[in-house]
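Reopening this ticket.

The earlier resolution said the output was attached, but the attachment link was broken on my side. Pasting everything inline this time so it's all in one place.
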Amino acid sequence: MRVQVGAAALVALLAAAGAGAATAASAPPAVTGFIVKLRAAPATATALSQKAALGAVQDLALRHGLVVTEARHITMGLHLLRVQAVRGESAAQLLARLRADPQVEFVDPDERRHALELPNDPLFSNQWYLQNTQPASVDAVDAWSISTGSPGLVIADLDTGVRFDHPDLRSISVNRLLPGYNLISNPHIANNSYGRGPDASDPGDWVSATDIENPLFATCAVTNSSWHGTRVAGILGAITNNATGIAGTTWRGWIEPVRVLGKCGGYDSDIIAGMAWAAGNPVDGVPENLYPASLINMSLGEVGSCPASYQAVINELLAENVLVVVAAGNEGGPVDAPANCAGVVAVAGLRQIGTKVGFSSLGPQIALSAPAGNCVNIAAGQPCLFSIQTTTNAGATVPTINTYTDDYNYNVGTSFAAPLVTATAGLMLAINGNLTPSQLTERLQASAKLPFPLSNDAGVQECHVPVDAQDLQNTECNCTTATCGAGMTNSYGAVLQAQRPIAAVTLPQVYAPATPVVLDGSGSAAACNSSLVSYQWTVVSPSGSPPPISNAGAAKASLMPPIAPVSYTLLLTVTDAEGRTDSATVAVTAYGASSTAPARAGDRACLGEVAYQVGGPGSEAASGGGGALDLLISAALLLAAACRGYRNRSAASSQARCARR
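Inline output:
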């Protein structure tokens, strides 16, 4: 049923609202639409009760002094209510007022939705992992309708460097790459003549039969170049909507290549230096990083426990609001280091159906899981149906043709699950730059998809926590939250979580007896392009006779402290203009108050732009690379190009290998 309110009714409602004077000289307030469900309106309402409910919806508008321009029943007890707001009241304030009405079950703004734009990159159709076509897909497509990244976002990729001349990473018109730096100290590992330097381009990390005659590489395997950093960079942020190649998970912002892996991996000392430099911390003998990263991706690792040196640097980076995302490893056993360090986001690998892919390491240190690629077929010469398609180079040793992985030159490993999570965190920061590493982690996990799907094969067992390094589960198993983290990465859900505000609380740590405790939530903040509209302090416990709170609906409130041994648990809930909320718990005792919430949410909800353009410092690195290669490299040859490594048990530091296969 549809009701168009007549002119007389509009005049009467306008008078009742006290709005009085819409004159010819001033435009009327904007019309705002809401979808309303009243508490007395059942989903299976009859036509008669629908009419009564529609009248109740109009009465709701009248009670709140609103001019109704349209009211009609939609379906299942839902009604459309279009109104003119009272002058001087924002749509967000009106929404909050209607939601507070005791006869209202819920009110949502009647917003517009638009057809989702898909990137025009020709290989995007093969990027199943970014779509929503498989249970494990991250659904970046829906996330892009809200966030495609920010020009102020910097993601550091600690890896083998990058091919600056790849046209899907850096072109004449579009650039996703910052200059970065090469932190590899040993010239033999760096595959150059000088070791560390400003050129973060990847010259190739092949290991030849001649190389292994050098004691430095004596325990290494002969391999071709992996172009591992270029592969990871493509997942993080290949140029999108350029009618070329693939789409990146982020479309805007910067990828900062930090070269820490070379021939046969890289030393911990260089990797740790790379972590510090990427975050903007000083490293002896290395120029200052002018573009510090908010996110660090590390698709590398080695078996063993988290070294204290890594943990110390990670703790510092977390304190500096830098999130570190690390691949779990590819042994099928306990989580590798540094993915098993406290505070990092460790990412396990999934098959397309959401079960653990055989090679992925697993265990309680995993934060969440993401697609790592898998080849469901086993016959020789058949395509790998669920490869992770990305940017690469065709050179077996030195760089030649820039190209892409595909079903034959396939690409699998937890190395490629990790950047999906890192890039998702980048989409989140573009929405809400105030999110701290712990908040990013919490919201990534809160948005993760559950339950983990079960394999249709009855022979597939449930994953279990590895007992030790010899307890390998290198075949498919059904994930649990104890082995594969909080769930399957959901980029769309994570971006929705990022849109929520951040509740922050400032409290007196001590106070005099019988003196009011001041509760200050004014440090809370909304996400980018939003604002807070309400604060609400409530008592969670004791519930029987809660103490009164003065100014409970304001940013700053107060209450009298309890008498020992009684304590109070309070909750601050902040609501933004779109009705999204966040909460913070506060504990109040007779002598002090505390909360795990931050004292201030920050002032970087919208990231500022990083002022770096194509042709600036480091552009000389873009000229590297070889000429044409007419002969395609065989699938077997490229499979052998896996980045392997070893733990040098005779040295103080270790070599880390790329987490692949």
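Reporter confirms the inline version is readable. DSSP finds 13 helices and 23 strands in the chain. The longest strand covers residues 149-159.
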